[in-house]
Amino acid sequence: MASLGRLGDDAKRAIKLVSVPFAYAVLLLALPLAAVLLFSFWTQDFLDIDRTFTLRNYQEALGEPIYRQLLVRSVLIAGSVTVVTVILAFPIAYFVSFHVAPSRKSLWLFLITIPFWTSYLIRVFLWKVILGYNGVLNTSLLGLGFIDEPLTFILYNANAVVITLAHAFAPFAILPIFVALEKIDHSLIEASRDLGESRVTTFLRVTLPLAMPGVVAAALIVFIPTIGDYVTPRLVGGPNGLMIANMIQTQFLRLNNAPLGAALAIVAMLCVTVIALLFIWLNRKWLRSQ
Amino acid sequence: MTDLIALEGLNKYYGDYHALRDIDLTIPQGQFFSLLGPSGCGKTTLLRTIAGFEAPSSGVLRIDGRDMKGVAANHRPTNMVFQSYAIFPHLSVAENVAFGLRKDPRSKEEKGRAVGEALEMVGLGGYGNRRAHALSGGQRQRVALARALILQPKVLLLDEPLSALDKKMREQMQVELIRLQRQVGITFILVTHDQEEALVMSDRIAVMFEGEIGQMDDPETLYRRPKSRRVAAFIGLMNFLDARVGGEVSERKTAAPERPTDDPMLTRFRRQIGLLPKAPKALPEYVSGIEVEVAGLGRAVLPKERVPEALRHTGCTVGIRPETLAVLFEGEQTTSRTVDGVVDEVVYYGDMTYYDVRIEGVEKPLTISMKNLIGRPVLEVGAKTRVAWDERSLVPLGH
Predict the structure, then answer these.
(1) Is residue A109 in a domain?
(2) How far is A83 from chain B (nearest CA, A)?
(3) Nearest partner of A226 among A119, A127, A84, A112, judged by Cα
(4) Distances (CA, A) of A58 to A13, A36, A259
(5) In the prediction, which pLDDT does A1 show?
(6) Are residues B156 and B259 in the same domain?
(7) Looking at the predicted complex, does its ipTM rise above 0.85?
(8) Do A198 and B88 touch (CB under 8 A)?
(9) Tally of domains within chain B
């Protein structure tokens, strides 16, 4: 405490303020992460853990085609979800920002969050009901005579995972894009019109570039959680819709191979980190230019 | 000069709110025209209607003889400098200026040269690569001007372009805008709530109140001969006195009182020896005009053309500009008519002093501005003084 005594009052107060969140971060973020990291260098020896340092798990995780295939599929599915979600979210955010009266905007945002009032699981099951072989969509289309036999490509595959996740993450994409659009000074849009640009070219030359930070943020917010999602692929993905997180779960709980599961988790995390850094770099680039 | 812009019976409603009321207006090519008025008077709405951002509810707007009904802002021969300047934050200064040149058939090099020239013209040569956020308010303003002028519009619309600048910068930009306008010869329409700015810059000013044009004249006429009380009150300082207007009279002019120092004998002697010119034959001078009885000051006869027909034989208001009255300092003489008063308030401005002088029969003290000439004292509150006035000071005002 002697050294603390020499610190100014401000410093003391700062330490006091910071210590609680710091302890929280260490306990809930750093420690579990460190545990996973540690596990990934150990090996499972039937019921015991062999604590000798080895890279064998990583060799297996990166070398086995099944793991690589799952990882690539996870990136592709998460990427598709991100693209679909952002493309569907943009018009909604645009509508609320530009065409809804200011006094109604918060009501609209509130309505957009309504799907969140039910549990995530229930929403996934509802999609099963909608997309199933005898589901709402198929019976409606059959009844209307658009199709002769039920569509099968909409459930128990990657498409179903993309549809379900895109719906689940829609508000997360709408909100950052909405905020970016809200920040756009409308006189900029008028200025573009005044300088001879049509509605469409104004959107492409002014509105979209200025909304880009929101789009990048939305993509990041959707991509990171979806790449590690395992409930949706488990429930609607079928055999071809499984993702890396399902394999991690299998390794930990079914195959009782926590070290390999940990190594897979670390590989997936590194993969997410690289892609996230790419997004952040993109966002920085947009932000710097403004 | 042909009329570049013609508005006929233009109306604009926002729901029940009548924002523009029967605006009739023509602006000739090359004029610096100002729309002046308090906030909420409709001047910006009118400007945005000309730009194509608002559609009039009724009436006709023609630019260069062409009806603008259904013509979108991007197809109008107008360009605008926005109040917030609206500089694109994701583009450099040069890219901002070149924004409207996308469809220009010229080559890239030629466009680049045009951008350089436009920046040069507004005094921003060499700033092309800067980002918008690295510019000061005045510089943004110049970028906005260059961006609009590079397209050589028929009309440049300026929406309170100077209101966000500090006083020094504003005065500098006023002069520069006038210079630019003379240089490019484009019709400018300026919206402002600053009467001084409008007086300094414009060839012609329309003063707007509650969606109507109160008066439209050149700056001098507007200042010296405002037609109504609200125009007079909005532009500059004005004293208002109640008055009764009578009918036409013709009477002998009241002789100016001889100066007490002028000894009649001495004057006659000087004339005889040729020191002074021979006195003109003293024919009785007659003045004819309208009789006006002004509260506190007394009776005056004003030339017929100065008193609008509608005001005759009624009670009305007479306006008097502070600089057309004078406070008489001790020992000063005047040939004007005078009235006794007591100094109520003194505001010293350096080059000028503003006195509020209370005179009998008028509730509100008269504001009088005096130049602080060498040797002229500044009176103190409570000092007794005389106020000199003249028939020419009086401006009869409608309502």
Answers:
(1) yes
(2) 24
(3) A84
(4) 44, 13, 10
(5) 46
(6) no
(7) no
(8) no
(9) 2
CB contact, 8 Å: A71 with chain B?
no
Boundaries of domain holding A124: 71-288
B314 and B228 in one domain?
no
In chain A, which residue's Cα lies nearest the Cα of B84? A187
- Smallest CA–CA separation between B79 and chain A, in Å? 6
Tell me whether A207 touches chain B (CB under 8 Å).
no
Q: Do residue B74 and residue A185 have CB atoms under 8 angstroms apart?
A: no
Chain B residue numbers touching A289 (CB-CB < 8 A)? 90, 131
Asked if A5 is an interface residue toward chain B (Cβ–Cβ < 8 A), one would say no
Domain membership of residue A250 (yes or no) is yes
Query: CA separation (Å) from B200 to A224, A280, B193, B196, B230?
Result: 61, 52, 13, 6, 20
- How far does the CA of residue A212 sit from the closest CA of chain B (Å)? 10
Task: Write down the pTM of the prediction.
Answer: 0.80
Q: pLDDT band at B282, cuts 50/70/90?
A: low
How far lies A269's CA from each of A232, A245, B38, B378, in Å? 19, 11, 62, 82
Any idea which of A84-93, A266-275, B340-349, B370-379 has the lowest mean pLDDT? Answer: B370-379
Q: Which residues of chain B are within 8 Å of residue A190 when distances are taken between CB atoms?
A: 53, 73, 80, 82, 86
Tokens of B389: 């006035």
CATH code of the domain containing B319? 2.40.50.140
Check CB contact of A215 with chain B, cutoff 8 Å: no
Q: What is the CATH number of the domain that holds B55?
A: 3.40.50.300
The CATH number for A116's domain is 1.10.3720.10
Q: Are residues B252 and B349 in the same domain?
A: yes
Q: Which of B380, B310, B368, B381 is nearest to B339 (CA)?
A: B368
Of the residues B185, B205, B234, which one is the last residue of a structural domain?
B234
> Does A290 contact chain B (CB < 8 Å)?
yes
Helices B167-184, B137-149: crossing angle, 10 deg rounding: 10
Q: Are residues B26 and B85 in the same domain?
A: yes
Size of interface A-B (CB pairs under 8 A): 65
CB atoms within 10 A of CB A270: 10
Digit-coded pLDDT (tens) for A87-129: 999 999 999 999 999 999 999 999 988 878 888 889 899 999 9
Instruction: Say yes or no: B246 and B210 in one domain.
Output: no
Instruction: Tell me how many domains chain A contains.
Output: 1
Q: Which domain holds residue B171?
A: 3-234
Does residue A124 lie in a domain region? yes
Please check whether residue A7 lies inside any domain of the structure: no
How confident is the model at residue B258, as a pLDDT? 45
Nearest CB to A193 within list B74, B84, B103: B74
**Is A187 an interface residue toward B (CB < 8 Å)?**
yes
**Within this chain, do residues B243 and B124 fall inside the same structural domain, yes or no?**
no
Query: Of B202, B234, B266, which residue constitutes the final position of a domain?
Result: B234
- pLDDT-flagged residues of chain A (< 50): 1-2
Distance CA B395, CA B399 (A): 13
